[in-house]
Write a structure and sequence with these properties.
270 residues; Thrombin, subunit H; Serine protease
């Protein structure tokens, strides 16, 4: 899981170089709507049916929670939170201000790796105060081969590649994620990029959330996820990175509130 911050001297030097570098350019993607967490990346996202006057939501990973990793099978809903998020400028060079959560709406590391925070302000107020509109959650499953960007608010860097395919099950230590997005090798995401939105470049919509990669070629261990197909065959792809799809979340939200009772909601439930 790529929230981990790099501990060796080499990694620290690399990180410093990234922080000082100009943000990567993409044809249509900017840092507008992205945020930096204390240990991860994230984004201000709007469900398709939400109003601009609804409370804003921030998307990140379940493993980015301040309280630690949720256990396998654990689902957290509607818990008070005062977590803060640094809202980035469109060019990623500065922070426009601090957003604050009102509650942790949903978080899990079962089947997916996601957290959703509800803020104490609306999309409209964020736009009026900072000039930043939210990113839109796509209600549609993405297709293999499409161009995508992983936009890291933590590192202020954009990683561009394509969706290489989808993984039946992705196993990492005790956790299992389903129908994960596998990136082509060009997206060399690192620690701190966890929680970054995966943006489909043709639409500008969020289709996933970045969460892990196989660092050293180990099999199914922490920071070394493995792919398991429907027949149980295990494949290890050293250096390849992954994300989790988010289209399913749109059926579990009623505007900016959680609606796990919706019969179309397939997300894990408490």
């Amino acid at each position: 899981m790529t929230r981990r911050l790099l501990g060796t001297l080499f990694a620290m030097l690399t990180a410093s170089a990234l922080v000082g570098a100009a943000p990567a350019e993409a044809a249509t993607t900017t840092f507008a709507g992205t945020v930096a967490l204390s240990n991860c990346s994230g984004s201000v996202v709007k469900p398709p049916e939400a109003s601009l006057d609804d409370p804003a939501l921030v998307l990140s990973n379940g493993h980015c929670l301040q309280e630690g990793f949720p256990d396998p099978g654990e689902v957290i809903v509607n818990q008070p939170s005062s977590r803060t998020f640094s809202l980035l400028s469109k060019d990623g060079r500065s922070s426009l201000g601090t957003l604050k959560a009102k509650k942790l709406l949903y978080a899990t590391m079962t089947d997916t790796d996601v957290s959703l925070y509800q803020l104490n302000t609306s999309y409209a107020k964020i736009k009026a105060t900072y000039g930043i509109a939210p990113l839109t959650l796509s209600p549609t499953r993405p297709s293999a081969g499409v161009a995508m960007d992983v936009v890291s608010g933590y590192w202020k860097k954009i990683y561009s590649c394509n969706i290489d395919g989808f993984v039946h099950e992705l196993h990492e230590a005790d956790w299992v994620w389903k129908d994960s997005i596998r990136y082509t090798p060009a997206c060399k995401t690192i620690g701190g990029t966890s929680g970054s939105p995966i943006i489909e470049t043709s639409t500008g919509k969020v289709v996933g959330v970045n969460n892990t990669g196989n660092e050293s070629g180990q099999r199914c261990t922490m920071n070394n996820p493995c792919e398991v197909d429907a027949a149980g065959k295990v494949t290890v792809r050293k250096g390849i990175n992954y994300g989790e799809q988010t289209y399913q979340l749109t059926s579990c939200l009623s505007r900016s509130e959680l609606d796990l009772a919706n019969p179309n909601c397939k997300a894990p439930k408490p």
